[in-house]
Amino acid sequence: MAERILDEKLEKEIKDTVDRNVKKAMSDVENVKKRAIGDIESMKTKVDKEVDAARVALNEKTEETLESIREKPVEWVAGAFVAGLILGKLLSK
Fold first, then answer.
1. What percent of the chain has pLDDT over 90?
2. DSSP codes, 49-79
3. Vertex 75, ends 70 and 81: CA angle to 5°?
C-alpha cells in the first residue's frame, strides 16, 4: 500500500513536470512565431518600398526614352539599324 501511494505521488509529480514543460515549450514556440511574423512583415515592407522605388525609376527612364525617341526619331532608327548590323556581323561568324 505504501508503495502504491509513492507510485501515485511519483506519477503525479512526473505528470505535473511534463505538463509544466510542455506549456513552457508551447509558450516559447508561440513567442518565436510572433517574432518571426514581425520580422517577415518588416522585411516585406522594406521589399515593397524597394520595388516601388525601382518601379518609379523604371517609369521615369521609360518616359525619358520615349521623349528622346519622339524628339529624335531618325537618330534612334539609325542607331537601331547600326546596332542590328553590328549584331548581325557578330552572330554570323
1. 81
2. HHHHHHHHHHHHHHHHHHHHHHH-HHHHHHH
3. 115
On whether the CB atoms of residues 76 and 68 are closer than 8 A, the answer is yes
- Max CA separation in the chain (angstroms): 107
> Which residues of the chain, if any, have pLDDT below 70?
1-2, 6
Which of 90, 64, 88 has its CA nearest to residue 76?
Answer: 64
- Give the pTM: 0.55
2-34 exposure pattern, b = at least 16 Cβ within 10 A, e = fewer: eeeeeeeeeeeeeeeeeeeeeeeeeeeeeeeee
